[in-house]
Write a structure and sequence with these properties.
Blueprint (H helix, E strand, L loop, with lengths): L2 H5 L1 H23 L4 H19 L2 H7 L6 H31 L3 H20 L8 H4 L3 H8 L7
Length: about 150
């Protein structure tokens, strides 16, 4: 069994975002040191919890939507999240640098995003052990699929 099956993807994402939250306190001082080696260390260490959180994300997103709208829900949700979360991040980081001249304040911004992520994941349902295909179906659809329809054609 893989770890996601034992602990659940929701918990894995929650735990890794907490690690990222804590690491941001250190990471920006490594980046601001001016050393390329320390910058590389900061980036490589950050990649570890990010990679661990990306693994179960697809399953977690799929679990958020009923089977009949799952593909559309995940697609629209991921696209909007990427646009709103990713497109403005660089602009906000540039504004922080231009306004305050301190890159560690970008870390404060990212810590705030970690808090939002942890809150969002924590509020989601944990579908571990739930048959998502059956649980999401309307009772009428289940009747039709099992061939037990009372209606006459």
């Amino acid at each position: 069994m893989i770890e996601r099956d034992v602990a659940g993807g929701k918990r894995r994402i929650d735990d890794t975002h907490k690690v990222i939250f804590e690491y941001h306190f250190v990471m920006w001082f490594l980046i601001d040191s001016g050393s390329i080696a320390l910058f590389l260390v900061a980036a490589v260490v950050l990649a570890i919890p990010l990679g661990l959180s990306y693994g179960p994300q697809a399953a977690l997103y799929a679990e958020m939507f009923p089977a009949r709208v799952r593909y559309s829900g995940v697609s629209v949700g991921y696209a909007l999240g990427s646009i709103l979360g990713g497109a403005f991040a660089a602009t906000i980081a540039q504004w922080i640098i231009a306004s305050y001249g301190k890159s560690w304040l970008i870390g404060v911004y990212l810590i705030g995003l970690c808090v939002v992520s942890i809150a969002a994941v924590s509020r989601g349902r944990d579908a571990m052990g739930v048959d998502l295909e059956v649980a999401d179906l309307h009772p009428r659809v289940r009747e039709l699929e099992s061939g037990r329809s009372d209606e006459q054609p």
